[in-house]
Design a protein that fits this description.
By secondary structure, the protein is α/β, with parallel strands linked by helices. It folds into two domains: 8-202, Alpha-Beta Complex (Spore Coat Polysaccharide Biosynthesis Protein SpsA, Chain A), CATH 3.90.550; 206-275, no CATH class. Helix content is 40%, strand content 20%. The protein contains ten helices and ten strands. Strands 1, 2, 3, 4, 5, 6, 7, 8, 9 and 10 form a ten-stranded mixed beta sheet that branches. A hairpin with a 4-residue loop joins strand 6 (115-124) and strand 7. Helix 7 packs antiparallel against helix 8, helix 7 packs parallel to helix 9 and helix 8 (229-246) runs antiparallel to helix 9 (251-267).
């Protein structure tokens, strides 16, 4: 950027991936983000000094370290609350926009008061596949890429931010659903491309037993907490079972996640933010035809 915006912070949650994060910082600098405030949440990495040693190359960068693992959902909440900025560019430790200039129009000038999040085109670097077909035009979307979106922080926090107990897995569409139910919107801008530089080192591999458990559970909670219980529970359970059927691995963790999703639909009753049945049906129809 020709001049670093004072109302913007780059927010990155990470855990045990200092080498990947270091690559991302280099790419952010090349893309023109040098000088933008950088905040990193270290989700209890094994080596407490690894992440601070990586980001010391970024002037004024801040690291917030958790002493107990909480997951990227709450990590992003912590970053949003701490940074003190109006806008947050939320990215993963392995993702980065390829140009800062395309972001400028979303930061300057009059802001659409209904717009909570602006999300962008996402390119998986290893496969060269785009997350959204290239022919999809700019417009309202039903969800967003957690690893490459611009948040209007006061609006998102007014919605409660991410649900911390989701840890990860469907935390983006769940937040998007609450944003939509409260009369706000997510905007899709294909003019800015975020590269997902996904690769795994041997010591950084994901725990797929945990991964499949959380997705099976959260796919139910996403609907059961935000819709009328009888409709949302059926809707979420169908999603969970469909996903488990098509991803045939870790049968026991997925079964446990499905059972816990049903149980927590009731044990977390105080966390419910249910919409009307009409809103739920409208959202289901909208989500099928908007950019995804």
């Amino acid at each position: 950027m020709s001049e670093s915006p004072q109302n913007l912070a780059i927010l990155i949650p990470t855990r045990n991936r200092p080498d990947i994060l270091a690559t991302t910082l280099v790419e952010l600098e090349k893309a023109g983000f040098g000088g933008v405030a950088l905040w990193v949440y270290d989700d209890c990495s094994t080596d407490a000094e690894a992440i601070p040693s990586v980001i010391k190359v970024w002037p004024g960068a801040r690291v917030l370290r958790g002493e107990q693992r909480i997951g990227q959902a709450e990590g992003r909440n912590i970053l949003m609350r701490a940074c003190g900025k109006e806008f947050g560019l939320l990215i993963d430790d392995d993702s980065f926009p390829i140009s800062a200039s395309a972001l400028q129009r979303h930061l300057a000038g009059p802001r659409d008061a209904c717009r909570a999040i602006t999300t962008f085109q996402y390119l998986d670097v290893p496969t060269q596949r785009f997350s959204i077909p290239r022919e999809v035009c700019e417009g309202v979307a039903f969800t967003f890429q957690g690893g490459g979106s611009l948040f209007h922080i006061p609006t998102v926090l007014r919605m409660g931010g991410y649900r911390s107990f989701f840890v990860y897995g469907y935390e983006e569409p769940e937040l998007a659903m609450r944003i939509y139910m409260n009369g706000f919107q997510i905007w899709y801008d294909p003019g800015l491309v975020v590269h997902h530089n996904h690769f795994e080192m041997p010591n950084e591999r994901r725990d797929y037993r945990e991964y499949d458990y959380l997705y099976a559970r959260n796919s139910i909670l996403m609907s059961s907490l935000n819709m009328p219980i009888w409709f949302g529970l059926a809707h979420g359970l169908a999603r969970s079972l469909r996903r488990s059927f098509f991803r045939r691995r870790n049968a026991w963790p997925k079964l446990r996640g499905t059972i816990d999703g049903v149980w927590q639909s009731f044990s977390r009753w105080k966390d419910r933010t249910p919409c009307s049945l009409a809103q739920a049906i409208k959202w289901c129809r909208f989500s099928k035809k908007s950019p995804r």
